[in-house]
Amino acid sequence: MYVCQWHLDILYGKQGDAVRAMKVWGEEKMASSEFRRAKSTRLLCGHVGPSASHIVDEYVFESLADFEAALQGMAQPHFKPLSDALAPFIVPGSQRWKILRILG
Fold first, then answer.
1. What structural domains does the chain harbor?
2. CA-CA distances (angstroms) from residue 3 to 14, 77, 103?
3. Per-chain mean pLDDT for the chain
């Protein structure tokens, strides 16, 4: 099992707008892409230590192949408006994926 975390920083004061855009995109991902293979999902933000402007979109997948299939689905044209809606709130260059293997 793998924890796949998309980390991104949001412009100051735009967390609410970004979270709303991410929730709409997340609902569509789960309805019409291989992200539905995720065993669990959650959305986190910094509280103590990391800035509240730091958001983590987290998914647990059974395999890296499941994660890769989910990412490939994001190339579908109907996802572009959803990513475009989130883009204005992201600090450029801050987004990255972290993949962790679950032990035990």
1. 2-101 (3.30.70.100)
2. 26, 26, 11
3. 94
